[in-house]
Amino acid sequence: MPRKLVQYAELLGQIKQRIRQGQARAVLSANAELILTYWDIGRMILERQTREGWGASVIPRLSRDLYSELPEVKGFSERNIKRMLAWYREYSAAAFVPQAVAQIKASVKVPQVAAQTESQNILQRLVAKNATAHMATTRQIVPGLHQLSEKIGRLT
Question: What is the pTM of this model?
Answer without folding.
Answer: 0.53
